[in-house]
């Protein structure tokens, strides 16, 4: 995955003619995102938002050469849509759908690994490369071309970080939400690797939260692999054990997932910790001025 991929991307949208697919595809097309076709079974042959609609991914790929998919279908239809894309060789998928059953995700993770598919989500706000493409549901008017690579588990906290870095003229090289469900496709490390090699990225911001071990895994990776400064904000410092906070994946167990433990490990591995959401932009700005 590199910036040229996003410049040359050809996207098909599963659930294109539905309410959410229509609304967000329209915004993305207006942002110059190269959505080349939609997929809505039973509606093949029509045009929607000026793009052809197909019954399945095979027909869409054969006609357009699409190499990526974004998925806006309900949770009970998601497995079929993902397999529809994977079976025709699509290797990059963004899944907005929330609440996919855990057994379905266990099944999909195995297939995605076998087929070497880069999968963002589920329950992801998507990805934006400013001025190049928007795959997902992120607000358009807060983005600005710049230096900060943002990767997050939370959609709304991502938007806040984007707004702050834009307001302070830092901008973003890319912003991505990996998803808030308990089982997700890509993880923090996948994007840390990308940002580490991205010439446009000068500073990296990781936004985590309680629950799971993705932040701990990222911290261990960071220690010996990063050549760029990494900042982190971890939400849920005051959350009690056993309480789910927002996302299905944001739940503290008695032995893991606590925000303070994540913060401590990240800090010990060289990450600059931001202790308040309203300090994200200023913390990074102050660092860039001094360095």
From TrEMBL:
Catalysed reaction(s) here are:
succinate + ATP + CoA = succinyl-CoA + ADP + phosphate
On whether Nucleotide-binding is a keyword of this UniProt record, the answer is: yes
Which biological processes are named by the entry's GO terms?
tricarboxylic acid cycle
Q: Name one GO molecular function term.
A: nucleotide binding
> Which Pfam families does the record match to this protein?
CoA_binding, Ligase_CoA
**InterPro entries of this UniProt entry?**
Cit_synth/succinyl-CoA_lig_AS, Citrt_syn/SCS-alpha_CS, CoA-bd, CoA_lig_alpha, NAD(P)-bd_dom_sf, SUCC_ACL_C, Succinyl-CoA_synth-like
Q: Which UniProt keywords apply?
A: Ligase, Nucleotide-binding, Tricarboxylic acid cycle
Function, in words = Succinyl-CoA synthetase functions in the citric acid cycle (TCA), coupling the hydrolysis of succinyl-CoA to the synthesis of either ATP or GTP and thus represents the only step of substrate-level phosphorylation in the TCA. The alpha subunit of the enzyme binds the substrates coenzyme A and phosphate, while succinate binding and nucleotide specificity is provided by the beta subunit.
The UniProt entry's sequence similarity note says:
Belongs to the succinate/malate CoA ligase alpha subunit family.
Official protein name in the record: Succinate--CoA ligase [ADP-forming] subunit alpha
* Record organism: Candidatus Azoamicus ciliaticola
